[in-house]
Amino acid sequence: MAVRERILAALRRADGPLCDDCLVPAAQLRRRQQANSECRRLAKEDLILRGRGPCSVCVKHKLVNAPHPSGGASSAEPPSHPPVRLTPGDGYDPDRPWYWEGNVQARLIAWLKHRGYRIRRAADTASKEHGLDIIACKDGKELWVSVKGYPERRGPLQARHWFADAVVFGALLHRDAHPHVQLALAFPRFPTYRRLISRVNWLTSKLPLDIYWVEESGAVTRECGPR
């Protein structure tokens, strides 16, 4: 198996992004330089995502690599480091876990505002308000985002139910009725959600659907679906 094939296979097996150092044993490479040079080429070809962020193995904030969500059919932005500063109106609750849905939503709202979006709607997560979680506007175009947190109880099992709810009610049911709107899903970066997204590549490679990943540090990554 060629070096690039081993790298791609290792990144797909991993529970999150890998730095060049941790990629060496994972892909059975001889030295770090192989990982560095080949990953730079793969990133230029839009076959992987490469940017600064936490490595899932050594947990250090370094230059990391992750599999492309649709095998090169979409584009992405590197994580926002340092995280965008929160404001009181963003709705972040420091007494709740960082992966609580309301805090994931607050981080994303701050990220969107920093990039020039106007927030038209932000659901009151604490009261379990129904409807779209975020409606944002920029340059005359609307972005609708369905946000999910990570369950404090029942872990991966409950997360799979939340994921299915986000895909069906946050994306598929809106597509035909509102074809002009950019749809997106937002999740805290947990291995369960990463694995679930990788299993629906057939969908994300065809549907104009963005995925936002929120890190424990507050950084945000956007993986863009086809336009």
Distance between termini? Answer: 33 Å
Gyration radius (Cα, Å) is: 17 Å
What would the average pLDDT be, to the nearest integer? Answer: 82
Strand order of the largest sheet: 4-10-9-8-7-6-5
Q: Helices and strands: which structural class? A: alpha+beta
Strand content: 15-25%
Number of domains: 2
Q: Summarize the main sheet.
A: 7 strands, mixed
Q: What is the helix tally?
A: 7
CATH fold-type name of the largest domain: Trna Endonuclease, Chain: A, domain 1
Helix content: 25-40%
β-strand number: 10
Low-confidence stretches: 71-75
CATH A-level architecture of the largest domain: 3-Layer(aba) Sandwich
Shape: globular
Order of helices and strands: HEHHEEEHEEEHEHHEE
The first-level CATH class name of the largest domain: Alpha Beta
Task: Describe the structure in your own words.
This protein has 227 residues and is α+β, with helices and mostly antiparallel strands. The protein has 2 domains: 3-67, Arc Repressor Mutant, subunit A; 88-223, Trna Endonuclease, Chain: A, domain 1 (3-Layer(aba) Sandwich), CATH 3.40.1350. 34% of the residues lie in helices and 23% in strands. The protein has a 7-stranded mixed β-sheet with strand order 4-10-9-8-7-6-5, sandwiched between helices. A 3-stranded antiparallel β-sheet has the order 1-3-2. β6 (134-138) and β7 (141-147) form a beta hairpin.
Summarize, please.
The chain has 227 residues and is of the alpha+beta class. The chain is built from 7 helices and 10 strands. It has 2 domains: 65 residues, Winged helix-like DNA-binding domain superfamily/Winged helix DNA-binding domain (Arc Repressor Mutant, subunit A, Orthogonal Bundle); 136 residues, Trna Endonuclease, Chain: A, domain 1, CATH 3.40.1350.10.
